[in-house]
Protein: Glutamine--fructose-6-phosphate aminotransferase [isomerizing]
Amino acid sequence: GKGEHRHFMLKEIFEQPEVVSNALNTMLNPADRTITLPRLPFDLAAVKRVRIIACGTSFYAGSVAKYWIEKLARLPVEVDIASEFRYRCPPMEADGLAIFISQSGETADTLAALRYCREHGQHTLSLVNVPESTIARESEAALLTMAGPEIGVASTKAFTTQLTVLACLAIGMGRATGALSAEAEADICRSLSEIPARIAEVLRRDDDIRVIAQGIAEARDVLYLGRGTGYPIALEGALKLKEISYIHAEAYAAGELKHGPIALIDDSVPVIVICPTDELYEKTASNVQEVVARGGRVVFFSDREGIDRLSAKVFSSMALPSVDPVVAPILYAIPVQLLAYHVAVAKGTDVDQPRNLAKSVTVE
Ligand code: F6R
Structure:
């Protein structure tokens, strides 16, 4: 049941400290701060290129993983939407690694892409939340996301557990390729082990996010901006908002702003900015300045330092805990989920069963 919570979605959002911790426990050794991947039926050290294929929210988890694997393992990664990949019939050199991400493990397009990759000599690894699912059974190896059953149609805890497992996988790949030093592995492992507690801190700010949501419920359009791994989090935030509140939302890589979407900015368009303090902070902060100068109502998600450094006058801001930039996307997923949730509640939509959507898309 929903327990004390009004909706399954809210219950599942609040389960995240626990389920992220469960996902971490499958691979993270807290004592020596290392990752142990399960034994795989192929040699990770021999992998030269990686493809990640998924749909919807799972695709955005894969989009974060592209940044991680490129950075930590220095392997080239392509991310594809399953329905585009399968009909493009792309050429593939043998011995690549293809990773499939699916909460349900039954998504038709993702399954078809898996079958295509197997026929084309790829090693196949799936990340699923349902262990006995078709995608898990048909791939050479499966990693479990350990989120427990997800009832709300809008994916929340499945997403953050996918990210958690993908971060561990990227670390394991970094060790296999030799690109990641033992010190760097230990640092990221420490940050990962602290992430459930940091998520719990953000959940305690639920009321503040509800207040921010009141100012967004009346909007017709909302823009989300982010850079680096903040970009897929912006995409996920926009998807969450449109799915459950029916407000039109779009996400852009912050650097794309001046290539078109800045024309949309006026004082009726809330602009949600994902901006942790990292090496790209200044770039995104200057985009915020451009939005504010055009009357845009910026909602700024950053940390204390990032908010203090910002000179632009934003409409509202929220300081999340400071974390290692590598793990920041896991943390910044939380406020965009809560924001979408509270906007939907303010609008009175059916949060757990949004119109026109099915939990598992087994037909294309
Ligand atoms: C969004 C959402 C969908 C799913 C997508 C893929 O909240 O739930 O976008 O992420 O349908 O589903 P799975 O992960 O089951 O393959």
